[in-house]
Design brief:
InterPro entries: ADH-like_C (IPR013149), ADH-like_N (IPR013154), ADH_Zn_CS (IPR002328), ER (IPR020843), GroES-like_sf (IPR011032), MycoS_dep_FDH (IPR017816), NAD(P)-bd_dom_sf (IPR036291). It is an enzyme of class 1 (oxidoreductase). Pfam families: ADH_N, ADH_zinc_N. By secondary structure, the chain is an alpha/beta fold. The chain has two domains: 178 residues, Medium-chain alcohol dehydrogenases, catalytic domain (Quinone Oxidoreductase, Chain A, domain 1), CATH 3.90.180.10; 141 residues, NAD(P)-binding Rossmann-like Domain (Rossmann fold, 3-Layer(aba) Sandwich). 27% of the residues lie in helices and 26% in strands. Strands 3, 5, 6, 9, 10, 17 and 18 form a seven-stranded mixed β-sheet that branches. Strand 15, helix 9 and strand 16 form a beta-alpha-beta unit. The two termini are 20 Å apart.
């Protein structure tokens, strides 16, 4: 059993605090990881606010890199000393999605069987099955993706973001929308996930990449990551018409809704070209509804899809995107606004809500 410092939230809307927790040695199919970096993601704030469930206390953190400390019986994909990116979709290989060759939709993903606990034995629920705002964490082997080759210490903070938000945005464009070279892409909402979708559009070879937001700082970030055009939604009468004007009057081939409210979903629906694709990657609040005439759904054609973690297969997509980063084709460093300590997680939540950062990253 290992005593380590970690960030815990004990009840809904209570502050995230640093305290000592107990992490067991790995059992069969489990891996003990020395955490090196972990990004501060909106999902962690959702856990704190009770938006994910009420299984408090939660051990927060999930966008992480680390070094394998020890492995349990039967683990063959990683070994002690390996550098890994943690992911929250450890596919089972046996469910109906995996059986039909679509493991990125796996319906029975794995987490560690053993629980990390407070010192008094209270079991912790790790965020997305990871819980990486901690000096060590225990995960299922499939949640570890080995990264071959050397990465500088300051590069790990950037690469770790592929564990959630950056992958969600890039994957929405590359995987869910299957964006092709020369197509046009519009992204509505340019927080961390939306800006990642912009970077994904550039990586896919889109030639018109339109970023839409109400915040000039976010639009500036989108331009740095590859947006060819920006639309400040607070300065125009009609976002849909603005996107059409930038796409020859037709609308974009792909529109990504990275906000997830009824208004932006409707904008995304109508901002598509005929037979265009809409991808919803922004997480809607429970009970959110939308009203679009069914004849419009039929008449406009195309596809309406949601993206789960960018429909990624971590074992395939994380190494590929790390190589794109190494080759200078994907600027993951641009997503890291600040590097912080475990004690700074709660202030980082406040900065994130205010839109002052793309990502704060805890370095251990």
């Amino acid at each position: 059993m290992h005593e380590v410092q970690a960030v815990v939230v004990h009840a809904k809307d209570e502050p995230a605090v640093v305290e000592t927790i107990l992490v067991p040695d790995p059992g069969p199919g489990e891996v003990l990881v020395d955490v090196r970096t972990c990004g501060v993601c909106q999902t962690d704030a959702h856990y704190q606010a009770g938006g994910v469930g009420d299984d408090f206390p939660y051990l927060l953190g999930h966008e992480a890199t680390g070094t394998v400390n020890a492995v349990g019986e039967g683990v063959t994909n990683v070994a002690p000393g390996d550098t890994v990116v943690l992911n929250w979709r450890a596919v089972c290989g046996e469910c109906r999605a995996c059986a039909k060759g679509q493991p990125w939709y796996c319906f029975d993903t794995h987490n560690a069987e053993q629980k990390m606990t407070l010192k008094d034995g209270t079991e912790l629920e790790p965020a997305l099955g990871i819980g990486a705002f901690a000096e060590k964490t225990l995960v299922a082997a499939g949640q570890c993706t080995k990264i071959d080759g050397d990465l500088a210490e300051d590069q790990l903070a950037s690469v770790g973001l592929l564990g959630c938000g950056v992958m969600a945005g890039i994957g929405a464009v590359l995987n869910t929308a299957d964006t092709q070279r020369g197509e046009s892409v519009a992204v509505i909402g340019c927080g961390g996930v939306g800006v990642a979708a912009v970077a994904g559009a550039q990586l896919a070879g889109a030639t018109t990449i339109i970023a839409v937001d109400v915040d000039e700082k976010k639009l500036d970030a989108a331009q740095r990551l590859g947006a060819t055009d920006v639309v400040n939604a607070s300065d125009v009468k009609d976002v849909v018409e603005s996107i059409r004007e930038l796409t020859g009057g037709f609308g974009a081939d792909v529109v990504v809704d990275a906000v997830g409210v009824a208004e932006t979903f409707k904008q995304a629906f109508y901002a598509r070209d005929l037979a265009g694709r809409l991808v919803l990657v922004g997480v809607p609040s429970p009970g959110t509804t939308w009203e679009i005439p069914l004849d419009e759904v039929f008449g406009r054609g195309g596809a309406i899809r949601s993206a789960w973690y960018g429909d990624c297969l971590p074992s395939r997509d994380i190494p590929m995107l790390v190589e794109q980063y190494r080759l200078g084709r994907l600027d993951l460093d641009a997503f890291v606004t600040e590097r912080i300590a475990l004690d700074d997680v709660q202030p980082a939540f406040d900065k994130m809500r205010a839109g002052d950062v793309l990502r704060s990253v805890v370095e251990l």
